[in-house]
């Protein structure tokens, strides 16, 4: 385990996230003053950083739950590596390097030129990012859809929240590759709704997303199998680490692109989303330490339903604009309902046990 969860309060888990929030908001205010030279400009950038942080947290509830589900089976060494190196990759890699890389590829310029473009011509930088939205949405949506479907299309899954749906999906899992076939059908449907070059871009990007998921699954399995061959204690090592990093990247796609609707400044986006990423890390540690997933029976189900909804929204965003607030509230709402269902289930079980003892 990561720590002694029973001995720590919820606030203690959020200590570093609070510290990072304070530093980030001060840095955002300073950046606002440096770029505008006015108190109103400083307040505006401060507010945008705060809104981006809330947006990232709302979009990442399901990310924290899925991380915790995978993390609880990892060795303490790899848990520590994910929560240290992983957060560096998440904050600096996906929130800074990834947007730069998109512009480098799309505009055919070098990394340093892309950084200068972000600093000197934020409007042009944002335009290039928005033009790259379609392939990113197709790639990330496909990867996340495979993550969600693989959870439900599992013949060994015997705990069901929405029984009439999940029971049929678990039974259908005996048909090999059924989740891949489902995704391929959706890719064809959405590509037919697009025209010309956009349709081709969508198909190619979606296929790359599918291949990336399969590659991560295969590589992760091989790496962890080789580690288990050396030592049984090494399970859930490098393969699980790679899986979680790619998963975090896929979750970040929507937040990074959506952030440009609020500001075109790369550095403001990095501060706001970075604050949100620290809360995801804190929530992940708390879920593992306290055994929350085991305590609340349907919480994990809600997270994976939220992943499926997010993947469909990313597909739909290739056709129409969907406000990020809807995406965030939708995922948080599903997780909230699954938590409420879990609490009701626990109460019924406690009442049944009490009646049995009296009888």
Biggest sheet, open or closed, and with what strands and sense?
Answer: none
Question: How far is the N terminus from the C terminus?
Answer: 39 Å
Radius of gyration using CA atoms only: 21 Å
User: What's the order of the H and E elements?
Assistant: HHHHHHHHHHHHHHHH
Quickly give the structural class.
mainly alpha
Q: Give the proportion of residues in helices.
A: over 70%
Pick out the low-confidence regions.
Answer: 230-235
Strand content: under 5%
Provide the number of structural domains.
1
| Coarse morphology | globular
Number of strands: 0
Count of alpha and pi helical runs: 16
Q: From the structure provided, what is the oligomeric state, counting identical versus distinct chains?
A: single chain
Overall mean pLDDT stands at 80
Structure described in brief:
By secondary structure, the protein is mainly α.
